[in-house]
Amino acid sequence: MAIDEDKLNQLIGQFVTDFGASMHGATVVMGDKLGLYKALADRGPVTGADLAEQTGYDVRLVEEWLNAQFVSGYCEYDPSTATFHLTDEQAAVLADESTPAFLAGAMTIAASVYKDEESIRNAFVTGKGLGWHEHTHDLFHGTERLFKPGYLGNLVSSWIPALDGVEAKLEAGAKVADIGCGHGSSTILLAQQYPNAEIVGFDYHEASIETARKRAAEAGVSDRVRFEVGSAQDFPGAQYDLVCIFDALHDMGDPVGAARHIRDSLAEDGTWLLVEPMAVEGLEHNVNPVSRIFYAGAVGICTPAAEAQAGGFALGNQVSDNQWQALLGDAGYTRFRRATETPFNRVFEVRK
Length: 352
Hints:
alpha/beta, 2 domains, 9 strands
């Protein structure tokens, strides 16, 4: 072996950085679930002992948690007073769930992959996949808390307006189906914004539907949104003015079959809002921090989910525009365009 020492040291440095990030991710999950970030945002600057007293948690563990946050750049420390606090930017990302910048919940998804590692590894051996419903609850909870800020920041302000004629229909009272709705964040937001619309969320995962109903009641929109168990291949109803799928089509074993069922369910001038992870053509062109997250998610979540279903597809989540256009063409659609995008998502308008 002719090892290049510079390249070796560079790789070791990258690995050490990744190792630190992987270890630190668990402290983010703890801080998020224990409410430590919110307490620090509300009560800082505080010493570790003060924060422990205010939250009722163990002093030494709170102190070490704060130390870990500071050295990772997740909080600030004043050595003159031995106090910690969050900047406004840190609070937005780590403590304030009402802002589109909130990301702390994302680490719960990462935690779920570690918890499910044995089951995912077994899927490599058996080829039978791992269904969404077979994951730990952290995946469902983390997905809700990662995606909700994105919906708050984009769904009604930019995604819906980017679709031809859809916003006017929603305001007048459109019929809407949100497929793969999970805990219902997107569905509830649509109901809040468009009170005249008839909106129903579908998901094959019964436990998620139960949670979505609770979320709707908490949001005060149970009178104008409902949630039902149903998959993308068999959800009931027809003549929908708008069908939505947010980051879920690639998880399906039969996305073409789902697309055909959606087409049959759309009104003649109906629109399918299809949101998928950001990706471009060619693996070599997807080398960036966002695609790195998505490819890792494809290994642990998306591809096993598709393999656990009938249909013969296992797309992963980095499907190019051209691939989607071809697949949807096979399902009978004639109009497909990228309506808008974010650094994390592509937003497609699909019509018959």
